[in-house]
Amino acid sequence: MDLHNLVSFAGIFVLVGVAWTLSADRRNLNWRVIGWGIGLQLLVALFIFVVPAGARVFLVVNDAVVKILESAGAGSRFVFGRLALGPGQVDENGVESLGFILAFQAFPTIIFFSALIAILYYAGIMPRLIKAFAWVFTRLMRVSGAESLVVASNVFVGVESTLTVKPHLPRMTASELCTVLTAGMATVASNVLALYVLTLQRQFPTIAGHLISASLLSAPAALVMSKVLLPEGGKPETLGLRVEPYYERDSSFFEAIVNGANAGARMIVGIAALLVAVLGLVALVDLFFSSIGNLLNPLFGLEGQWSLGGLFGYLFYPLTLILGVPPGDAGEVSRIIGERLIVTEVAAYNDLAVAMEKGLLEHPRSAVIATYALCGFAHIASMAIFVGSVCALAPQCTKTIGPVAVRALVAATLACLMTACVAGAFFTEGSILLGGT
Predict the structure, then answer these.
(1) Is the pLDDT of residue 432 over 60?
(2) How far apart are CA 192 and CA 199, in angstroms?
(3) How open is the CA angle 89-95-96, to the nearest 5 degrees?
(4) Strand partners, 239
(5) For 95-122, what is the mean pLDDT?
(6) How many Å apart are CA 117 and CA 291, to the nearest integer?
(7) Following DSSP, what letter does each residue of 136-155 receive, concatenated?
(8) How far apart are CA 337 and CA 373, in angstroms?
(9) Angle, nearest 10°, between helix axes 107-122 and 52-80?
(10) What is the C-alpha separation between 23 and 10, in angstroms, rounded?
(11) How many other β-carbons are positioned within 10 Å of the β-carbon of residue 180?
C-alpha cells in the first residue's frame, strides 16, 4: 500500500465529514448506517481487489458481460449494417468499421439489456435478487424496508426502481425520500452500463467488471450519504420490516420482451434528446465564458480558455485530490468529474475515453478512480427525472420534495466519490483487474 492508497482510504472519512458539515441535523446521526455502509463497501472491495477468488469472479463477470454485448450487437448490425460495427471490427463480407458511433453502436444495446431485464423480472429472478439485497440493508443498517428495497433495486435498474415502493411513497418521511432520490442518482441502471462499456472498452478492457463493482459499492454509499445529509427525524412505517417489491408482471414471455424493448427505445430517445439539448446549451454557455475570458485575460495577464468544464474542474479539484488521484492527473480528472454534474455521465465517460486515448492520464489509478467516480446519475438532469418520477407516483410529495432533491443530489455526488475512494484505497499497480490500462 503506497501513499496514494492511504490518501484514498482517508478520503472515505473526509467525504463523510463533508456530508456531516452540510447535514440538516448534525446531532442526529445513525452510526449503525455509517459503520455498516462503510464496512460493506470495504468488504466488497477487499473481495474484488485483494482475494484471488474475488479477482477471478470479477474477470468471469467482465467476460460474461462482454459476450452478452457481442450478442446484443447482432441485432444492431442487422438493422444498421456497417454503422453498427465497433472500432476495428470487420463483418463477414470484409467491410470495415467507420469508427465509434454512439447512436448506432451503444444505444441499441440499451434496447437489448432492457428486454433482458424484463425477461429476468418475468422469470422471477430479478425480484428475488432485489429482496436478497434489501434484506441485507434492512437487517444490518436498521433502515426502513421501503428505502432498503429502493436502494437494492437501483443496483440493477434505474428510475423504474421507484415503482417497487409505489404503495409506500405517499407516507414516506423526508429522510426516506432523500434516500430514494440519492440511491437513484448514485447508481446506474444495468441497461445503461452497456453504453459505458462500449465507450471505454478499447482503452479499458476490464471496464465491465469495474462498472458492475462500482454499482454494488455505490448502494451502501448512497445510504450513508443520504442519512448523514438528512438524518431520520420521524418514524418510518416500514422501519425494520421486509417489504415485497411492487411490480406489474407481464402476462407472457413474449410480452416481457416487447415491453422491455419498448422501454429501452423510450430511454434511448430520452438520452439522445438530453444530450442534444444539454451539450448544445453548454456550448452556448462556453461561448459566453470564452468571450469574458478574451476580455479579462489581457487585463489581468491570465492565460487559457474559459469554459464551464474548466470552472467545475477548479471546484472539484480539492475533492479529486482527496480521492487519491496523483496531482499530475488531478486537473484533467477533476474537469471530467465536475462536468458530469451538467453534461451527464454519458458525455463525461466519453471525455474520459478521449483523455485515455490521448495519453492525458499518466497513472493507471487515475483512470480507475475516475471510472468509479463517474458511475452514477448524479447530475441536474437526472435529479429532475427522478423528482418527476416520484411526483407522478405520489403527487402528495410535490410540495416538499424540492429541498430534499437538492440534498439528494449532493449526497449522490458524495456517494459516487466515496465509491471512488474505496476503489483507490485497494488499487495496486500491475493488478490483473486493470487489463491493460
Answers:
(1) no
(2) 11
(3) 40
(4) 144
(5) 78
(6) 47
(7) HHHHHH--BHHHHHHHHHHT
(8) 7
(9) 110
(10) 20
(11) 32
Summarised one tens digit per residue, pLDDT across range 128-153 is: 988 999 999 988 998 899 999 999 98
Residue pLDDT, tens place only, 390-408: 888 888 888 888 899 999 9
Minimal CA–CA distance to 374: which of 412, 411, 410? Answer: 412
Report pTM: 0.88
AA letter at 232: E
Name the grid cell of 75.
441485432
**Cβ atoms within 10 Å, residue 394:** 20
Q: Which class for 235: exposed (0-12), middle (13-18), buried (19 or more C-beta within 10 A)? A: exposed
H or E stretch at 412: helix 401-426
Enter the C-alpha cell of residue 143.
Answer: 433502515
Domain spans, the chain: 3-88+97-426
Q: How far is residue 298 from each of residues 291, 308, 314, measured CA to CA in Å?
A: 12, 20, 21
Q: Which three cell numbers stand for residue 285?
A: 454557455
Q: Are 184 and 161 in contact (CB under 8 A)?
A: yes
What is the residue type of 141?
M
Residues 366, 321: Cα–Cα separation, whole Å: 10
C-alpha distances (whole Å) from 199 to each of 12, 218, 396 are: 28, 21, 40
Neighbours of 94 (CB within 10 A): 6
Question: In this structure, what are the phi and psi dihedrals at residue 96, rounded to the nearest 5 degrees?
Answer: -90, 160
96: left (phi over 0), alpha (psi -120 to 50) or beta: beta
Q: Are 433 and 54 in contact (CB under 8 A)?
A: no
Grid coordinates given for 233: 427525524
CA–CA distances in Å: residue 361 to residues 270, 382, 418: 32, 28, 21
What is the secondary structure of 254-306 as a DSSP string? HHHHHHHHHHHHHHHHHHHHHHHHHHHHHHHHHHHHHHHHHHHHHHHT--S--
Sign of the torsion angle spanned by Cα atoms 204, 205, 209, 215: positive
| Region class of 29: left (phi > 0), else alpha (psi between -120 and 50), else beta | beta
- Triad 428, 429, 435: Cα angle to 5°: 100
Cell 485530490 maps to which residue?
A: 321
Amino acid at residue number 239: L
All cell numbers assigned to 35: 459503520
